[in-house]
């Protein structure tokens, strides 16, 4: 694991993003055909979208400074583009997609116990917060989704808790997909005092979350989280808030994905530790497609994790995040189900509004 070479208070931060300018966005409707607009099969999307999504990308920076630049000629920006293709693309049939570049905290921040990692995460969050208010200016009165993964979800839960929960914005937020970062079950009542958690596929103005693991696997180690009392360390194997990404309920029965889902194959560069920590972009194109015969079973286990089983899943079993931890495919595994659910919740929201 790459550790920053200096203490946070000795680190000169990168320049702040300017979110009124397109260069500070990884995805924006005016940026043209970015990877978030890729589709695995030919569709005829409606160019006039009735909703928008604010997508907060996960960690793509594994460098020796506490926070990344937002420069687009970097390996970490190329990794962000892969995340746009593999994750944000799920919204492209329903929403205008906005994804801010932000001074993301380096991967080591989650493991640092000195407080420096927490400071790096706090700086990243401030960028996301500023980007969100610019996003609201961009979209006018449109309804919106919040979507995120990993580090992005840590920032997303704070953003919703501080600025959406209990405000008029909560009525415009169709749903929030806070994926791939543990949200403690005991923190829910403090994080979201007014906003409900989603308990059915068509519910709106609510929050969804899951972390994916193989059957009989738990998350390991400690990390940082945030609640309205501030930042704190927590154990990742604690009881979590979770949603089943096929049934869209909180039931614990095993459910087959057959005819309810499609799995996205993201054809990009090496995703091993060597690939993730390379210093230069590869320049390789990104391609996406759908796997054939991609059926498996999923349930919410007692810890709140989306637990999966089936022969198809063996191809994803690597040691990069711990054997059995399917963090890197939290979106890909359920891409088709998420896409349908976004469309359903939008339809229900518009029906309610009209």
Report what the structure shows.
This protein has 354 residues and is of the alpha/beta class. It has one domain. The chain has seven helices and 15 strands. The strands form four sheets. It has a seven-stranded mixed β-sheet with strand order 1-3-2-4-5-7-6, sandwiched between helices. It is globular, with a radius of gyration of 19 Å. The mean pLDDT is 94.
Characterize this entry briefly:
The chain is α/β, with parallel strands linked by helices.
Features:
354 residues, alpha/beta, four-stranded mixed beta sheet, seven-stranded mixed beta sheet, globular
Rg over alpha carbons: 19 Å
Strand count, sense and barrel status of the largest sheet are: 7 strands, mixed
DSSP summary, beta strand count:
15
Provide the residue-averaged pLDDT: 94
Order of helices and strands: EEHEHEHHEHEEEEEEEHEEEH
Percent range for β-strand residues = 15-25%
Whole-number total of structural domains: 1
Helix proportion of residues, in percent? 10-25%
Topology:
Elements: E1 25-27, E2 51-56, H1 75-86, E3 95-100, H2 116-139, E4 144-149, H3 151-164, H4 169-172, E5 173-179, H5 188-191, E6 196-197, E7 206-210, E8 212-214, E9 222-227, E10 230-235, E11 255-256, E12 264-267, H6 273-276, E13 287-290, E14 297-300, E15 306-309, H7 335-353
Parallel strand pairs: 2-3, 2-4, 4-5, 5-7, 6-7, 8-15
Antiparallel strand pairs: 1-3, 9-10, 11-14, 12-13, 14-15
Helix pairs in contact: 2-3
């Amino acid at each position: 694991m790459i550790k920053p070479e200096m203490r946070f208070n000795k680190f000169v931060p990168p320049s702040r993003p300017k979110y009124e300018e397109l260069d500070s966005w990884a995805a924006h409707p005016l940026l043209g055909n970015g990877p978030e607009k890729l589709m695995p099969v030919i569709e005829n999307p409606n160019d006039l979208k009735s909703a928008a999504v604010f997508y907060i990308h996960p960690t793509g920076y594994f460098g020796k400074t506490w926070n990344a630049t937002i420069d687009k000629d970097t390996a970490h920006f190329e990794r962000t583009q892969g995340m746009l293709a593999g994750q944000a693309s799920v919204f492209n049939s329903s929403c205008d997609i906005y994804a801010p570049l932000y001074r993301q905290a380096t991967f080591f921040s989650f493991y640092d116990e000195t407080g420096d990692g927490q400071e790096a995460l706090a700086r990243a969050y401030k960028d996301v917060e500023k980007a969100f208010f610019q996003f609201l200016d961009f979209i006018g009165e449109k309804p919106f989704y919040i979507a995120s993964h990993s580090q992005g979800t840590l920032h997303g839960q704070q953003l919703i808790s501080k600025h959406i929960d209990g405000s008029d914005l909560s009525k415009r937020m169709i749903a929030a997909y806070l994926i791939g970062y543990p949200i403690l079950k005991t923190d829910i009542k403090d994080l979201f005092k007014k906003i409900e958690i989603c308990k059915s596929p068509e519910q709106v103005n609510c929050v969804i979350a899951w972390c994916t693991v193989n059957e009989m696997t738990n998350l390991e180690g400690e990390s940082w989280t945030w609640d309205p009392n501030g930042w704190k360390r927590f154990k990742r194997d604690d009881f979590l808030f979770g949603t089943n990404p096929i049934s869209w309920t909180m039931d614990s029965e095993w459910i087959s994905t057959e005819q309810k889902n499609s799995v996205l194959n993201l054809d990009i560069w090496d995703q091993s530790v060597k690939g993730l920590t390379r210093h230069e972009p590869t320049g390789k194109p990104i391609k996406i497609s759908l796997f054939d015969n991609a059926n498996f079973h999923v349930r919410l286990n007692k810890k709140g994790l989306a637990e999966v089983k089936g022969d198809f899943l063996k191809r994803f079993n690597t040691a990069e995040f711990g054997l059995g931890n399917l963090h890197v495919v939290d979106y890909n595994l359920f891409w088709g189900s998420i896409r349908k659910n976004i469309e359903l919740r939008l339809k229900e929201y518009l029906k309610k509004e009209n």
